[in-house]
Amino acid sequence: MQLFFSKSFKNYIKYGIILPLEEEMYKFFVSENQIESENITILGEDVKHISNVLRLNNLDKVIVCNKENSSSYLTEIINISKDSVVCRIIDKELETTESGINIDLYQGMPKADKMEYIIQKTTEIGVNNIYPVELERCIVKLDEKSKYKKIERWQKISEAAAKQSKRDIIPKIQNVVNIENICQNIKKYDIILLAYENEEKNSLKKELQKLEKNKKLNIGVIVGPEGGLSENEVQKLVTSGAKCVTLGKRILRTETAPIVMLSDIIYEFE
């Protein structure tokens, strides 16, 4: 037998909840106005997913998170209809699954479906915001209509990954930005780290060790597309305050670099 509990074992014991090994505690996100004093109403596509795909029933337990303030609730399904799933709140005090630091990823847009993979994996690891970036060496060029459709699809991928990994927030896929936008944003971060293949001495580890451990840090991460960043782009970013770092002796793919960087940052501070 296995209990599902993130870090709130005492809460599950208190309410006598024991889940068999094969059962999984699923997580869903709702808006503030869907939460009442004792009940939460799940709407939209999640209703079909709960009833037709997961085949959950009354008395099954699910985690529901307020996507506006990250509050999580342990709930019990009490009614399933065509348009809604009503859950009774059991516990309002589940501990957060978030790391306590804010990490934003500025990702040079790669080709094919690599961006989807990056969004999925960095969401699982702990990213907060993802900015697709148009850079000189990006192969992919999107018109305004395509940008809207892509961001809409990418946001759905972020939400699905957030549910799967039991996040308390859904990372936001921001509008497509350029190098000038990043330079303007640098000042809002405690540090912004640029993965650069030509940097040989300054490691990611060195820069992370300079940061104060006992504060909520705001960290930006910049990763270029398949062809990397141009020297001109790197110079603009460094002049604006970005720190170039090496990720080691081996050159990583554009879809690998953000995973490595976020994993190292989370390991250092969580």
List strands and helices in order, with pairings.
Elements: H1 9-14, E1 26-30, E2 39-42, H2 45-53, E3 61-66, E4 72-80, E5 85-91, E6 102-108, H3 114-125, E7 129-133, H4 144-164, E8 172-173, H5 179-185, E9 191-195, H6 204-209, E10 218-223, H7 231-240, E11 243-245, H8 257-269
Parallel strand pairs: 1-3, 6-7, 6-10, 7-8, 9-10, 9-11
Antiparallel strand pairs: 2-5, 3-4, 4-5
- Anisotropy-based shape: elongated
Major beta sheet, specifics? 6 strands, parallel
| Proportion in helices | 25-40%
Radius of gyration over alpha carbons?
Answer: 21 Å
- What fraction of the residues are assigned to beta strands by DSSP? 15-25%
Q: Largest beta sheet: what is the strand line-up?
A: 8-7-6-10-9-11
Distance between the termini: 29 Å
Helix tally? 8
Supply the helix-strand structural class.
Answer: alpha/beta
Strand elements, count = 11
Mean pLDDT: 90
Order of helices and strands: HEEHEEEEHEHEHEHEHEH
Regions with little confidence, pLDDT below 50 for 5+ residues: 1-14, 18-22
Describe this structure in words.
- By secondary structure, the protein is α/β, with parallel strands linked by helices.
- It is built from eight helices and eleven strands.
- The chain has helices spanning 9-14, 45-53, 114-125, 144-164, 179-185, 204-209, 231-240, 257-269, and strands at residues 26-30, 39-42, 61-66, 72-80, 85-91, 102-108, 129-133, 172-173, 191-195, 218-223, 243-245.
- A six-stranded parallel beta sheet has the order 8-7-6-10-9-11, with helices on both faces. A five-stranded mixed beta sheet has the order 1-3-4-5-2, covered by helices on one side.
- Strand 3 (61-66) and strand 4 (72-80) form a beta hairpin.
- It is elongated and about 60 Å long.
- The two termini are 29 Å apart.
- Mean pLDDT is 90; it is low at 1-14 and 18-22.
